[in-house]
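Name: (Fe-S)-binding protein
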Amino acid sequence: MDLARREAVGAKFSADAMKRAQALTWDATEKIAAIIKPGMRESEAIAASKALLGTLGMDRIWHPVLVRFGENTLRTFSERSDNDPVLGDDDIYFIDIGVVFGAHEGDCGFTRTTGSDPEMQRCADDAKRLFDIVQDHWRQEKVTGQALYDFAKTQAQALGWVLNLDIKGHRVSDFPHAIYKGGKLGDLTDTPSGGLWILEIQIAHPTRPFGAFYEDLLV
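Structure predicted for (Fe-S)-binding protein:
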């Protein structure tokens, strides 16, 4: 499939509307993070997140709300959480939401910690740091999606982490993007355009059972 078909959008698509949807989704994610506290079960955090989203004027949720605690931060989007862990006082978690605002898809995720574990904090920080490094590489070098994730893997190793290459990014657009069958960003043999693709970064600690996640619109 050629790039034009992978990057197709609907008649109602607007780049400004995409930016607005992403900004509102980030705001929603921050609001969710503010209500997640130690002592909550993962299922409770997800239920609270959905309830909060329902108050924010969204059109709909377009992908399942994910909140992962502790060891579940190693699991990919399509994997079910193991049990229903309680968030500890010295723990790590991430949020991943996909919400439609103004008929356009927002999608973002980030990792936070609850305590002072230096490795957990560094992991959370480096997921965002790695995203920025990879996005800057795309902006400067105009590489393909495949090359972008090859670069991400190397950079993750340089920072001391293991990149999960089962998570490769994806299309977003006016809802629903799925009809365009854009595929995975990391499988793209062309240079992706800005404002249409979500760059996903998921890293794992090399020896301890936790990881971190960060995603945002590639712009």
